[in-house]
Design a protein that fits this description.
Elements lengths: L12 H8 L4 H6 L8 E3 L2 H5 L7 H13 L21 H31 L3 H26 L7 H7 L2 E3 L2 H28 L12 H21 L8 H20 L3 H6 L4 H16 L5 E2 L5 H23 L1 H24 L3 E2 L13
Parallel strand pairs: 1-2
Antiparallel strand pairs: 3-4
Length: 366
């Protein structure tokens, strides 16, 4: 079934009215699940002790590039945005809105954390970096929010900072998570951009035209966190290699489950979610060789089988929530057990070792 005609399958007038209703984007943004973007806080004093001297030359070059602000004038909408969301058929509109809200929440959560770090740290290198990161993430979140406002479904970002729960992460966990978030963000956006460059008829909203330069911001941000990790070699050795594996798998698993919950969105882009996700995993694996000493074998049949098992378990959990009662509770328990087992099997699977290159810096060439 074509994505743009999916709503024709609505079984009755009530379902159709519900499909055409404007989504509660604030509820979407503030809803807490394992898969939803979160807000974080950290040990600000520990950031004062960070020393980037081992990577100083590459660090200064990257900071100079970020200060020059290559995308200063990029995030400007044009008239093509007017009414673009409303023109979508409801099933696609709902999933596209969910994609935008999730992206906005992720960008804005980064902005909040980075701005707070910049305000509280006394380390001049950290203060400069996180001011620049907050500038970019604020711009990205604002651009998405303006896109939503075109349809009257923008989000009160000030309220969002008060409504969301904050989760404490040690700085090293922030570094692992944000490095992967920025690099996989680049891989996701560039894969979509390349797809639509080859098939422009699938470009159902103008925001996708902004993705190439946008994802270059994400790439630069990831470079900064790659240098922070490489500046402290112990973060990539010993028991910390187990944390690297955990964060890699967590990010991949979250993406896989979330993307398969948006079938209409991906069909409209001409993408198969499974093929798209594994393409993104491959790009991310290639990029992360700059900093991670281990990589997951995402092409292994056992890995892919267990990822599908995890997806099926996640769907059981959601079905159990929807059903409720004792049967629903049993479905949720079964789903959580299945998800945990599948995750453990992937985590324990043999990884590939990687010798870190002498030069850290990469360019967005994918």
């Amino acid at each position: 079934m074509n994505a743009h005609t999916a709503i024709k399958a609505a079984p009755d007038a009530f379902a159709a009215r519900q499909a055409f209703a404007k989504p509660d984007t604030m509820a979407m943004a503030t809803h807490e699940t394992v898969l939803s973007p979160r807000f974080y806080t950290t040990d600000f004093a520990a950031l004062d002790a960070i020393d980037v001297s081992p990577v100083r030359a590459e660090w200064d070059a990257l900071m100079a590039e970020m200060v020059s602000d290559p995308n200063k004038h990029h995030f400007k909408k044009d008239v093509s945005f007017d009414g673009a969301i409303e023109s979508l058929e409801p099933a696609l509109r709902a999933e596209f809105t969910d994609f935008l809200v999730s992206s906005l929440t992720s960008e804005f959560s980064g902005c909040v954390l980075y701005a707070e770090i910049a305000r509280r740290t006394r380390n001049p290198d950290m203060k400069q970096l996180f001011k620049l990161l907050a500038r970019d993430e604020s711009r990205h979140a604002g651009f998405i929010n303006e896109t939503l406002k075109d349809s009257g479904i923008g989000i009160d970002l000030g309220f969002l900072t008060k409504a969301k729960k904050y989760h404490y992460f040690k700085p090293k966990f922030i570094f692992y998570a944000v490095y992967l978030s920025e690099k996989i963000g680049y891989a996701r956006y560039i894969a979509i951009f390349r797809q639509l460059a080859a098939k422009p008829e699938m470009r159902f909203h103008p925001i996708f035209n902004w993705f190439e330069q946008w994802c270059n911001d994400e790439f630069r941000h990831g470079e900064a966190f790659a240098m922070l990790l490489r500046a402290d070699p112990k973060l990539l050795k010993g028991m910390n290699k187990l944390w690297v594996r955990f964060f890699l798998l967590s990010v991949y698993a979250t993406m896989y489950v979330r993307d398969h919950a948006r079938p209409v969105f991906h069909e409209a882009l001409g993408l198969d979610p499974t093929a798209y996700d594994y393409r993104v995993f491959t790009i991310c694996t290639q990029i992360s060789r700059q900093v991670f000493p281990v990589e997951l074998d995402t092409d292994a049949p056992a890995f892919r089988r267990n990822m599908d098992n995890l997806l099926a378990a996640s769907r059981r959990i959601e079905a159990g929530k929807a059903r409720g009662g004792l049967v629903g509770l049993a479905m949720r328990a079964s789903g959580m057990a299945g998800a945990g087992l599948s995750f453990a099997k992937m985590y324990l699977q043999r990884t590939h070792s990687n010798a870190l290159p002498a030069t850290i810096r990469l360019q967005p060439a994918w």
